[in-house]
Amino acid sequence: MKPKTKKILKIVLNVIVYALFVLILLLTILIISSKGKGYTPLFGRAFVAVESDSMDGTEKDSFQKGALLKIDILSGEEKSELKVGDIISFYETVNGRRIINSHRIKEVWRKGESVVFITKGDKEGAPVDSRSRNTDDVIGKVVKSTNGLGNLFLFMRTGTGFAVCIVLPCLLLLSYCIYDFVHAVLEQKKAQKESSKERLKEELLKELREEGRIPSETPNETKE
Predict the structure, then answer these.
(1) Which SS3 state, helix, strand or coil, does residue 169 take?
(2) Do 67 and 150 form a contact (C-beta atoms < 8 A)?
(3) Terminal Cα distance for the chain, rounded
């Protein structure tokens, strides 16, 4: 392989490695930050994996279990503007565990500055939620869903998933960085050794010429 081609390939590989490192670092930060809130925040949006099939209905914006939801995180004023038909994500407590659920608004009750939402899942036969939601419970409005992608997020939040998706790639990247560093050091030492040998050779030839053991170099004569 030509030195120039080899150099280009090395640069491309390094760019890929550093890009993967940044991606893994970002995923790690998102996973860690999601544990306190229950969702993964990013630039004013939340990303939530669906853990039940309560919204698996026939509406165009219904979604299945294992989907990944993109949610616009709303301010208090924006929450009060939500309307019937919007899908909202909210906190609720089930069996003593605080979780995030996402259902469609069926009714909106307003009394002064107080707003209460009645919600229900899209699945056929699903009952209206037994508890109404006020604006303090609401995280935001679901704006997009991608079926299946949420399973990856759920897997990554497990111990095994974190090890496979985060720890193992980090170890591989670290191994590559160590290899690249050692290789660079050895190449530098090799170059220094070659340079030192060449210098010693020149010094030895010079000394032999001065002692008359070998003829001195004479410039090539050219015929006119």
Answers:
(1) helix
(2) yes
(3) 43
**Measured CA distances, 205 to 176, 208, 217, 219 (Å):** 43, 5, 10, 16
Say how many CA atoms lie within 13 Å of 182 toward its Cβ: 6
Q: Is 91 exposed, middle or buried (0-12, 13-18, 19+ CB in 10 A)?
A: middle
Reduced to 3 states, what is the DSSP secondary structure of residue 182?
helix
CA separation for the pair 32, 26 (Å, rounded): 10
Three-class SS of residue 60? coil
Q: Which of 37, 44, 33 is nearest to 143 (CA)?
A: 44
pLDDT in tens, 61-118: 999 999 999 999 999 899 999 999 999 999 998 888 888 999 999 999 988 778 999 9
CA-CA distance, 29 to 206, in Å (whole number)? 63
